[in-house]
Amino acid sequence: MKKAVVKTGGKQYLVAEGEKVKVEKLSAKVGDKIQFTEVLLTTTDQTTKIGTPTVAGATVEAKVTAQGKTRKVFGIKMKAKKRYRRLFGHRQPYTQVEITKITTR
């Protein structure tokens, strides 16, 4: 089974072929095919290639399956003894991708 570590949106994800992963929002429509070129590590049953900082010639191809937002997270701002309180909510947008192919040279 091929696996790879991909960097996108300032985060790193361990992915395998056929797997669905939620990554930081990408500007692609549902059904679009995208390619991740920042591959930090690739591995198969026999070999492992570690990049310095990326693996030369390695790419991960994926298909966008969904665009959405996560559950709402609430936060509070407060200043003690000043009668200042603010409640806020945040929903982080994400893109769900299905990994279709991992290629190395």
Characterise the protein shown here:
By secondary structure, this protein is an all-beta fold. The protein has one domain (3-103). 0% of the residues lie in helices and 62% in strands. The chain has no helices and ten strands. The strands form three sheets. Strands 2-1-5-6 form a four-stranded antiparallel beta sheet, with no helix packed on it. The protein is elongated, with a radius of gyration of 18 Å.
Descriptive tags:
elongated; 105 residues; single chain; 4-stranded antiparallel sheet; mainly beta; 0% helix
Distance between the termini: 16 Å
Helix content: under 10%
The shape is elongated
Low-pLDDT stretches are: none
| Average residue pLDDT | 96
Helix and strand succession? Answer: EEEEEEEEEE
Provide a compact summary of the structure.
The chain has strands at residues 3-8, 11-16, 20-24, 33-36, 39-43, 48-50, 59-69, 73-79, 84-90, 93-103. With 105 residues, it is mostly beta strands. The protein has one domain.
